[in-house]
Amino acid sequence: MPNRKRAFTLVELIIATSILAIGIVFVSRSFLTMVGALDTSSNKIKAVQFLESKMGEVEQQVLEQQYIEQQQVQADIMIGNRSAEWELVVEPLDLEDELTLQEEIEEQVQKGETINTAQISVTWQEENKQKEAVLATYFLSNESIQDLDTEF
Q1: DSSP 8-state secondary structure symbol assigned to residue 130
Q2: Which residues pair with 133 in a beta bridge?
Q3: Backbone conformation region of residue 8, classed left if phi is above 0, alpha if psi is from -120 to 50, else beta
Q4: How far apart are CA 47 and CA 40, in angstroms?
């Protein structure tokens, strides 16, 4: 009996290489998807940090000056490596637009006090989609704040 060595045939090598190539493609696509999701998450976190910082400035102004004027401010910023636009809108609360209010707000409204809302939003483009992060808060009008100061 002759001594035959067993070796891979050309067809087996081509099939194995094809399977390996397909596997590498799927793994690399998954990696790219993961990197995109990480970038989106990072931008969202940076936008929320910016919103919290701006809202802190608004709240500080209300505490120091006892009021904030109705206003609408827009400006451009950079969120990560993307250009973005932020907007601050301060206006009286439209009770017809609000479906539910907390009990404290309802009590203030029943007393005839004006509730204002401050809403800050950041919008940016990412992967041909517009992304947005919004932060809003409610506070009493100038007269109501001064009345609260005299009560303490």
Answers
A1: E
A2: 122
A3: beta
A4: 11
What angle is formed at CA 76 by the lines to CA 121 and CA 61, rounded to 5 degrees? 60
- pLDDT digits over 59-91, tens only? 888 888 877 788 899 999 998 888 999 999 998
> In whole angstroms, what is the distance from residue 58 CA to residue 53 CA?
9
Tell me 124's DSSP state. Answer: E
Name the strand (E) or helix (H) holding 127: none
* CA separation, residue 101 to residues 12, 104, 107, 136 (Å): 70, 8, 10, 14
Per DSSP, the three-state class of 101 is coil
Is residue 21 scored above 90 in pLDDT?
yes
- Give the span between the Cα atoms of 11 and 108, in whole angstroms: 81
C-alpha closest to that of 67 among 134, 122, 148, 135: 148
State the sign of the Cα–Cα–Cα–Cα dihedral 77, 79, 84, 85: negative
Q: What are the residue boundaries of the structural domains of the chain, listed by start?
A: 10-151
Other Cβ atoms within 10 Å of 105 Cβ, number: 17
Residues in contact with 24: Cβ distance below 8 Å, sequence separation at least 6, in sequence order: none
The helix (run of H) or strand (run of E) holding residue 40 is helix 10-65
